[in-house]
Specification:
The protein has two helices and no strands. The chain is mainly α.
Length: 66
């Protein structure tokens, strides 16, 4: 098989694999949301809620030089 044909074949294969992964991820998310809805739980974050856990910034400063 010619190198160009092999590249086309592999490119198509990887694109198909990515599409299948996306479909599986979408199905898992939809199933989880359906499960929460059936249980009567909220599907989104509560209004006004935020992450209150303190975060380290030392790595950020080291990386970006702030």
């Amino acid at each position: 098989m010619a190198p160009e044909a092999m590249q086309d074949l592999l490119g198509s294969l990887f694109a198909w694999m990515a599409q299948q992964e996306s479909a599986l991820r979408s199905a898992r998310v939809k199933a989880g949301l359906r499960r929460r809805a059936d249980a009567g739980l909220p599907l989104e974050r509560a209004k006004g809620s935020r992450d209150l856990k303190p975060r380290k910034v030392s790595g950020y400063h080291r990386r970006y030089g702030c």
